[in-house]
């Protein structure tokens, strides 16, 4: 799981922004007709379409609509904070509104036919990674754990022409798929594929004088070695850069005292 820190709403037509006079204002750009939005966490909204129609709405959606999607923290110190869980219905909505280039969609669909396809990041995660790379103006990136290249391709597509992405992966069969899509997308010149154990590749880069020369890193590889990978990436990523780590909550096992370390696979 990667935390969804959205600069813009995931919906391509919505922007959520804070205001002083109200808790939030939700502005929607639509082609015709006023649109109605209802949400349990926002007390009121102002909806405006392109024709200028404005409608103020009360948010009174029945609690049953949200089901188990809203969880309230049981510790009073957090002020009864409500946390929204990603239910199947909500996740379907998220995926339906992700901006996914055709080349990424083709790669995703091909990967679903392969063994271990659950290792591929989801379209919303890939969009988040690409957005983060753009927000910090990254030019030099590292990915530890490539699989078939969905996330690395998403990153490479938003890098400038002079951008550089080191892609570390040990599985040759998966890399062949990734390289085929790098070429098809016209980004092969940006990607330096390292077919080897990731730790060895990262150590070699440090010995080669590349410490503190990278802007961004994404870690999604063997979980037992996360600590080692992270310490190596700390040496390679510059001060002020960004390291994104996948699976940090590991299906909730990090909060389960009965979960064993040896249950954490790749």
UniProtKB/TrEMBL annotation:
Keywords: Methyltransferase, S-adenosyl-L-methionine, Transferase. The keyword Secreted does not apply. It holds the Pfam family Methyltransf_3. One of its GO terms (biological process) is methylation. Coiled coil: none annotated. GO terms for molecular function: O-methyltransferase activity. PANTHER family: CAFFEOYL-COA O-METHYLTRANSFERASE 3-RELATED, O-METHYLTRANSFERASE-RELATED. Belongs to the class I-like SAM-binding methyltransferase superfamily. Cation-dependent O-methyltransferase family. This is Tricin synthase 1-like.
């Amino acid at each position: 799981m990667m935390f969804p820190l959205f600069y813009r709403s995931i919906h391509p037509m919505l922007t959520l922004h804070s205001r002083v006079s109200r808790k939030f204002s939700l502005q929607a750009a639509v082609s015709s007709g006023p649109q109605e939005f209802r949400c349990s966490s926002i007390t009121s909204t102002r909806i405006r379409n392109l024709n200028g129609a404005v409608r103020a709405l009360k948010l009174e959606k029945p609690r049953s609509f949200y089901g188990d999607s809203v969880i309230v923290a049981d510790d009073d110190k957090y002020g009864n904070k409500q946390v929204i869980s990603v239910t199947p219905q909500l996740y379907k909505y998220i995926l339906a509104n992700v901006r996914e280039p055709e080349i990424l969609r083709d790669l995703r669909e091909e990967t679903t036919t392969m063994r271990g396809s659950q290792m591929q990041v989801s379209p919303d995660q890939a969009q988040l990674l690409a957005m983060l790379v753009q927000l910090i103006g990254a030019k030099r990136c590292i990915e530890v754990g490539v699989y078939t290249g969905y996330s690395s391709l998403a990153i490479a597509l938003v890098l400038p022409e002079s951008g550089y992405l080191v892609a570390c992966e040990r599985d040759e069969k998966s890399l062949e798929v990734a390289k085929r899509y790098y070429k098809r997308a016209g980004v092969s010149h940006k990607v330096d594929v390292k077919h080897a154990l990731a730790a060895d590749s990262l150590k070699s880069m440090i010995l080669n004088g590349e410490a503190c020369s990278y802007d961004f890193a994404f870690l999604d590889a063997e979980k037992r070695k996360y600590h080692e990978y992270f310490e190596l990436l700390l040496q390679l990523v510059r001060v002020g850069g960004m390291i994104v780590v996948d699976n940090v909550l590991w299906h909730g096992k990090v909060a389960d005292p009965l979960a064993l370390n040896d249950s954490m696979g790749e």
